[in-house]
Amino acid sequence: MASPKKMFQIFVAFPDLGLPSRSLSLSPDLTLHRLKRSLFPYQTQTQTLNSLYFSLNGKPLLDSSTVSSAGVTSSALLTLRLRVAGGGGDGGATGAESRDCYLNMYAVKKPDKVDPNETRISRWTTCALSTEPLAPPCVIDRIGNIFNKEPLVEALIHKRLPKEFNHIRGLRDMIPIHLSPIPDAGRPEMRFQCPISGLEFNGKYGFVAIKGCGHVLSVKALKEVKSSACLVCHKEFSELDKVVINGSSDEVAVLRERMEEERGRLREKKEKKVGYSLSGTKHGVDEKTRSLENVGHDRCGKRFKAVDIAPVNATKEVYASIFTSSKKTEFKETYSCRSLPLGRN
């Protein structure tokens, strides 16, 4: 029969709980978890007991270890401490971190968080180029960015436009707009609103500008009052005349595609105009008698002569004199006089 193990006495302190120290007689096989429960017999919440831990000479001890395996000897002082969340995993610092680790952690400055509401309001109340508060006269480009006209024109003249605004090539790419200010806004900077619905021009609501008249209206107002004319000046407009201001990426893509199509149509129109000015029809040459270009460069390489297209009843010499100089004469210059061709003296 095995003899019972010898009991020995220890002391337990409670500095974090404000309780007086106690002297206990323990068996070496007693676990620290059971010792903790014996100290609080009426405490039934396991979560509360888990927030407490024993330490010996400043070293945390596991609840699953026995008194002897933890290195507790007779007359030793165990300290019961309160575990603080967010430490080294055991309620406190592990002591393994070095001073350089903390210095490196705080050496890199984290970027300041940007308030999305401030970004949104800034986009709708300031110039996209100069970031100054919006003030008339204002313009938008063909994809919905809003500007103060003066800094945009200056940047265009001095060729200082950023790459994101390279699609603005001249005054034709600027659409003048009319913003309706909020009366007595009580703010140092000017704020604007929809003249029909009264919604503030701050990015919470969608707005469109009408190309023909330049009035800026809210999308809500255009949906409620369905009309093909401007709700302010009653000027007719089409769906293609509406430009979404500060639209989403999909809306900007649609506006950019529309802008390229308009430029393509304008380019074709210019090419047709140039081709018409170079054709013979502008100079009154009948298509039946061939154009001037075809006559000048005949298949045989023959040089163009005016008499070749002379009217039927006209004298060729008289008709040719319209396009050429007068007849050459027999007069020649000598050392004592200068003879001019007839008709020029």
From TrEMBL:
Pfam families per the UniProt record, alphabetical: Rtf2
SUPFAM superfamilies: Ubiquitin-like
InterPro entries registered for this protein in UniProt: Rtf2, Rtf2_RING-finger, Ubiquitin-like_dom, Ubiquitin-like_domsf
GO cellular component labels: nucleus
Residue ranges annotated for the Ubiquitin-like domain, each copy included: 8-87
Taxonomic superkingdom: Eukaryota
BP term (GO), one: DNA replication termination
Signal peptide feature range: none
Annotated coiled-coil segments of the chain: none
PROSITE patterns per the UniProt record, alphabetical: UBIQUITIN_2 (PS50053)
Official protein name in the record: Ubiquitin-like domain-containing protein
Species the sequence originates in: Dendrobium catenatum
